[in-house]
## 1
Amino acid sequence: MAEVLVLVDHADGQVKKTTAELLTIARSLGTPSAVFVGSNVDAARPRLAQFGAEKVYVIDNADVDNYLVAPLAEALYAVVQQASPAAVLLPSTSHNKEAAARLAIKTESGLITDATAVEAAGDGVSTTQSVFAGSYTVKSTVTKGAPIITIKPNVVPPSAAQASATVVPVELTVSDAAKGAKITAREPKAKSGRPELTEAAIVVSGGRGTGGDFSPVETFADTLGAAVGASRAAVDAGWYPHSNQVGQTGKQVSPQLYVAAGISGAIQHRAGMQTSKTIIAINKDEEAPIFELVDFGVVGDLFTVLPQATEAVQKA
Ligand code: FAD
């Protein structure tokens, strides 16, 4: 079976869940190989092996770390030339989408971004995207070259399948042309202790209905081990950081469970969460549009319902 490359999303060798998801998808298309960019591959190998990576192509080159995007595209291109893969899969982040586009130009292949499903179709690959703020589902297939596909998080449950994760070093000299934008400082965000919004299996979000008091939202989220999201109204009011905004101009999430508290369900908010597996809304207005897309709805005051739900979960 042809190789399918998966770009590893990691922090100093700690492999993120999206990589396990992409390796799971890659196994349905061919033989998965991971592409690891960085210096700590030893820390990453066990998890890459656990989710089925037969090979791990390693690019350990400081220039890829020190310059924005273009060197990553060159690194991926070097692996593509070596492996001649059937497809290249990347986690959908703005950084990776730019790298994927640059790679597609180099390989003269078709590019599909933000896929929510990827499956084998004859000799090719069929993908699904949710577009126009989620009002349409589009199915596409790449007709030229090896498909390059960025995939949203949480679209499949990761499933383990042990493989050898054999390390294959890849030589790379980054071109001067790719060194157009240098990273001058990296400052880690203060850690909240909660899972990352786009990676979390459960997201609890608050909107204008919180009136600026996110404490019941945060307490419920912590009880479930969930990430906290916010509507733009809550962010614009200065109640929550923009990094937690869910929606068209915020983050796109696709967790197993999404809880919207005091959020009306505007189309721009839906665009960021409607591919969630199960959606629960708490809103005191029974006519709120959010109730059109929920699996479970509670008509009530979030300041009453969330503490009750928190207590019920704690007792369970
Ligand atoms: P509201 O629409 O005001 O809804 C508040 C809800 O809370 C109401 O339904 C009310 O019944 C309920 N409520 C009030 N008190 C309580 C209570 N005590 N208990 C329970 N329920 C209560 N929005 C986003 O979220 N994300 C985006 O990325 C985004 N991008 C945008 C991009 C563009 C170009 C534009 C034009 C808009 C965008 N918006 C986005 C804004 C969007 O249109 C809505 O204005 C916003 O989502 C509304 O936020 P909300 O639901 O919190 O507030």
Note: The pocket of flavin-adenine dinucleotide is lined by residues 207-209, 231-234, 245-250, 262-264, 266, 268-269, 272, 282-285, 288, 301-303 (CB under 6 Å).
## 2
Amino acid sequence: MGTIRSFEDYQEQYKKSIEDPEAFWATIAGEFQWRKKWNKVLEWDFHKPEVKWFIGGKLNITENCIDRHLPQRAKQTAIIWEPNNPKDEALHITYQQLSEEVGKTANMLKAQGVKKGDRVCVYLPMIPQLAYTLLACARIGAVHSVVFAGFSAKSLIDRITDAGSTIVVTADGGFRGDKTINLKGIVDEALEKCPDVSRVIVYEHTKTKAPMKVGRDLWWHEEIKKVNAQCPAEEMDAEDLLFILYTSGSTGKPKGMVHTCGGYMVYTNYTFRTAFNYEEGQVYWCTADIGWITGHSYILYGPLSAGATTVMFEGVPSWPDWGRFWQAIERHKINIFYTAPTAIRSLEKAPISFVESHDLSSLKVLGTVGEPINEEAWNWYDKNIGKGKCPIIDTWWQTETGGFMISPIAHATKLKPAFATLPLPGVQPAVMNESGLEIKGNNIEGRLTIKFPWPSMARTIYGDHQRFKDTYFSTFPGKYFTGDGCKRDEDGYYRITGRVDDIIIVSGHNLGTAEIESAITEHKNVVETAVVGFPHDIKGQAVYAFVILHDKPGNDETLRGEIRETVSKIIGPIAKPDKIQFVSGLPKTRSGKIMRRILRKVAEGDTANLGDTSTLLDPAVVDEIKAGAL
Ligand code: WTA
């Protein structure tokens, strides 16, 4: 499908994609290498729900990300790896080298008995071996399940158990700025509770001392020596599983979103090329971690299937100083730069000299993702990084959607600060009111749903199709409910206003309030807790916990510190509450339901406006909470 170069091109492609979605996607899918063509483009039913794309099609995504590029691009850099320490040398991995490394890694996994359909748990820092491992899984038809290497042992246990993984690929440790994280130690702790894991492959990266359990643990560097670089790709059905990736839900248990091979490949590739207006030879950097969907779709699969040069960055934006991003842009002559609002907001606070001392003239397109971007951050990004000449592509999407849904198209869509703008071709949004009716027309506000399938949508929650249906297809029957609220302005432009459920987005990371609550109650002195989000300058939203204690010890701060530690240990440091208020009761209805609406208002500092509290069991508790608000 032709590149979109103007707003008219967009309108034309959008129209085609709505009038005949099957023909539209078949044309795009036809540009890939299939072992066998599909018999039918689409079958779907959002009531069951069931969605299948490219039915009967056979392929391997790695043949599209690697092999098909080799005739023209063997020597082109596929991945630039920028290490944590800028004094260490960056690696330039060519497509030829990528092919060999993935082949070896795939053979190493095979030698350990990994086969098609097995779920491989991957707990690695942002090093090239993370990319090799994912592509190696895809090569042999194993399903990767990446756990972000900032998550705790408990999170690892939940994900390993839910996916039924029997093998874990990890490293001795990972670097993040001046810190070293002992990943193997966390894996060892987790595996005490995962008796089915019989193999751990450990990549030596930080040279952190890692005790190896005989019969279970193997060193990557020893095993990789035993295998060769040729690994034939497994033939996969378009609807075979490619990966599972966990995201937070409204209950404590994370949801294993399932993505399949064919549709995911077609859609991530199309959206990458289209939204960023990617041009042959450009160098692209997405600063996300591969532990999140953004890294899966837009560090690896989208860019590599497009034959781009994609950057993997191991470090953090603040180390050794706040110029780190800008220095790397200059060093690698980045053309397309994609980051998160939370990063922009913290970079904005640093002296502007960190930006000005670097040559950013290679930049052509900027992007943002993960949470609504506020106008101030948008303007700062535009002026100081894009120098007023780079479009900002504000991509709205989700782990569940697999790829961009609502987003401007570089050089085609007229931008508006803080607006994700318009749906990409193939995406059919519908805004609903609370009684379940679609709100037509413009200048409206409501809940965002999608009424027609797109190729990269998640097919189910691993092992729990009922939950998939209940979470996404029951609130508005026949439509996919995103969990987000939005406005549609007079031009039909969408502005995402944030979550309307019990998920809060802290520094771009989704956290379920129930998940944090259950972590806090693990502290021995906690009776009950309720968690809400509140606006935060840099993180976008932060965690506010109302906590009832068994008995009140002398020092509140010590106790707060302990509670934060408990959460950090159970979920990970990102989930630590910023504010912890001790209360003697929570505002509950007579049926025992916590009225979070009231707590949200208190957390936002808007106590004058609590609304109706007459249905509460004990209205007096509200006065106490108001008086003690932090
Ligand atoms: C939010 C990340 C506003 C939204 C790709 C969504 C955004 C959730 C944007 C998914 C954006 C993501 N503008 N909000 N550009 N992008 N969100 O699953 O609330 O980690 O539902 O996927 O992030 O987060 P997830």
Note: The mean pLDDT is 95.
